[in-house]
Amino acid sequence: MRLAIYGAVSTTLACWVVFSAFTQRVNYYAACVHLAKSNVCMMILLNMGLYIAIIIGKAMQAIFFGPLRAIEVEHLYERSWYAISETCLAMTIFRDEFNLHFVVLFTTLLFLKIFHWLCQDRVEFMEQAPAHRLTFHLRMLHLMSVLFIVDYYLASTGILSIWEHGPSMMIMFGFEYTIMFLTLLSIIGKYILNVIDWQSEEPWEGKSMYVFYIDLVVDFLKLVTYVTFFVIICIYYQLPLHIVRDVYVTFRSFIQKCRDLYRYRRATRNMDQLYPNATVEDLSGTNDSTCIICREDMHANPPDITSSPPQQPPQQDGPHHNYDQPKKLPCGHIFHFHCLRSWLERQQTCPTW
Which EC number(s) does the record attach to this protein (predicted)? Predict the structure, then answer.
């Protein structure tokens, strides 16, 4: 209802200023000059353009997403306010170049960011509800294809403009479109992994590590992009305060992922030798023989089997490895081998801590 009222008022005002300009001026050229020179007329026409953009966005939402979930709407409001405030800070750097072209580029940027956020939320939703209809995948494939082409074109156009004409406001937009392109590559990679996991008959144990590597590589590329943009702006303009937080957050995220990768490799190296198999006595001595990660019962091999040394060291990822074998940590807690390994991909501490 509010959108309908806003649209009716915007359309009425736009029609009124255009009708007045053409009735009070002798020809078409004079009417266009009057509309372009009048600040009031330009504000009304820009507001009408914003309403048209909202209508187009609503139509594209219905085509590619359908009804939005409550969490997606909440994320849109939170991210939109942050993106607008961040761009307003960036405008202080390029205030001498603020014009109609800047407004159109900013509106296009925010428009595309919204669809990237929704696409990211939908791919994350696939992990919670992996069974989706064919229409869902057709929508996602078409949306990601369109965003890929648009992001690549706008990012390359912005970078080419800077290369040919020197530093300008296109630095900010070329940088933003490059960040969105890298984000889209991460979304596409995670979508492919979700589809592979959905089609596999058994749970894909190594999926989380592939997701981790995708995030690690994308964080590195984003960090390089942020630092490059930061240096260029500092050289040709002034300190870009609006991206200091993004540079810090991306750098901290990348360093944390590198630390997690090192700890995971150290924790999962020779897991058979590092963590002994739990015996029947170990499980019977505990209050609960249920693995708290997967919530399934654990069953150990008989003592005469577990106590005898194997002829050859078992391979961690060998085809005959018993992934349901309970493993005992130094702290005394017991978990399934595959559950412990999947947990160590996310955290390098005991799950009970």
Answer: 2.3.2.27
CB 51 within 8 Å of CB 10: yes
pLDDT for 320 equals 40
CA distances from 155 to 22, 135, 170 (A): 39, 30, 10
What confidence score (pLDDT) does residue 273 get?
Answer: 62
Q: Report helix, strand or coil for 204.
A: coil
Q: How many secondary structure helices (H) and strands (E) does the chain include?
A: 13, 2
In a domain, 329, yes or no: yes
> Which residues does 190 contact at the CB level (< 8 Å), separation at least 6?
123, 124, 211, 214
Residue ranges for the chain with pLDDT beneath 50: 303-321
207 and 110 within one domain:
yes
Looking up tokens 């085809």 gives 319
Tell me, what's the pLDDT at 152?
92
> For the chain, how many residues are written?
353
Sorted by sequence, the CB contacts under 8 Å of residue 89 that are 6+ apart come out as 241, 242
**Which residue range is the domain that position 100 belongs to?**
68-268
- 78 with 156, same domain: the answer is yes
Instruction: Say yes or no: 225 and 245 in one domain.
Output: yes
Q: Supply the pLDDT for residue 281.
A: 67
- Model pLDDT for residues 298-319, shown as the tens digit of each residue: 776 654 444 444 444 444 444 4
Token pair of 79 as six digits? 């991210």
How far apart are alpha carbons 264 and 271 in whole angstroms? 11
Looking at 268, 298, 328, which one is the last position of a domain? 268
Alpha helices in 92-169 (DSSP H): 100-128, 134-165
Give the CA-trace dihedral at 114, 115, 117, 118, to 10 degrees. 120
Amino acid at 353: W
- So what's the pLDDT on residue 318? 42
